[in-house]
Design a protein that fits this description.
The protein is mainly alpha-helical. It has helices spanning 6-13, 20-65, 72-86, 91-102, 113-116, 124-144, 151-155, 177-192, 203-212, 220-263, 265-274, 277-287.
Length: 289
């Protein structure tokens, strides 16, 4: 209504006098600001990439400090993601989980070798210091800024379902799901790896212990999901076996063919001619390994 009112309408439709020089200057300033924004965005992206690369090296350094834990963080990340997919986590949730799993033990950088690599049993005081790695890791990642969402899973990856873990003694669903996932795959990888103080355990034995701990140490939902992940892996391995059998069969067929052609050199020559170059190559490799 006021827009069509006489005075206001007249004022609104009055030609606006703008200085062309000012417009040019404003346009130039806008372009400069836009250019600076793009540069800042690029610098920010570069900073994130370099920080991530540095953090990944640090995670590998943590594993490398102890020969027995080499590759541990990467394996935990891989298994945590498999478990997360089994639990239907979204793409964004999987990203957060993946970073948390990769950096879950980054706080061990702050633990002295005398404790981390001690071959004997740790004293109460040393255990207390060792437990600080969860909080310390959370602090390190928090300071990075852009991995903020991964911090809770790192901070609480040693909480136990029954509330007897650390650092906060959270129980059940109070524990962030990412932390519960990392806790169970971390335990599995640890059991499957030879450590200073014990040998690696077979998968079946390790899984039996994890299933026994469901509802006490481990989140039952995560343990069920881990069972399904391992069952799927076993099924995938079984599916791959017929291929191996087929390879064996073809070796057997090749042996029979070789024996046959040795007995009938004439037939062998014509057979070789009729074979495709690839099959001829395979037969030659078999005859003259
Ligand atoms: Fe840990």
């Amino acid at each position: 209504m006021p827009l069509v009112d006489g005075r206001i309408g007249h004022a609104a439709s009055a030609p606006l006098l703008v200085c062309p020089l000012c417009v040019q200057k404003l346009r130039k300033a806008a372009e400069t600001i836009q250019g600076q924004n793009v540069s800042l965005e690029r610098a920010n992206q570069l900073l994130r990439e370099r920080s991530m690369a540095a953090m990944e090296s640090l995670a590998a350094t943590v594993d490398a400090r102890d020969a027995y834990t080499a590759g541990h963080s990467r394996r935990v990340q891989r298994h945590a993601l498999a478990l997360g997919r089994q639990l239907d986590l979204s793409r964004a949730e999987l990203d957060v989980l993946g970073y948390a799993a990769l950096f879950h033990d980054i706080g061990k950088l702050a633990i002295p070798d005398a404790i981390l690599l001690k071959p004997g049993a740790l004293s109460d005081e040393e255990w207390k210091r060792m437990h600080e790695h969860a909080q310390e890791g959370a602090r390190i990642i928090e300071r990075l800024g852009f991995l903020h969402d991964s911090v809770p899973a790192i901070q609480h990856h040693h909480e136990r379902w029954d509330g007897s873990g650390y650092p906060a003694g959270l129980a059940g669903d109070e524990i962030p799901l990412g932390a519960r996932i990392i806790h169970v795959v971390d335990a599995l990888d640890s059991m499957l790896t030879t450590r200073l103080y014990r040998a690696a355990r077979p998968l079946d034995e390790a899984m039996l212990e994890i299933r026994t701990g469901a509802g006490a140490q481990f989140c039952p939902r995560c343990v069920d999901a881990l069972d399904r992940v391992l069952a799927a892996e076993r099924a995938a391995t079984r599916d791959a076996e017929p291929t191996a059998n087929a390879a064996e069969l073809s070796r057997e067929a090749m042996a029979r063919l070789h024996a046959h052609t040795r007995a009938q050199p004439e037939a062998a020559r014509s057979l070789r001619v009729s074979l495709s170059p690839l099959s001829q190559k395979s037969l030659n490799a078999f005859v003259e390994p």
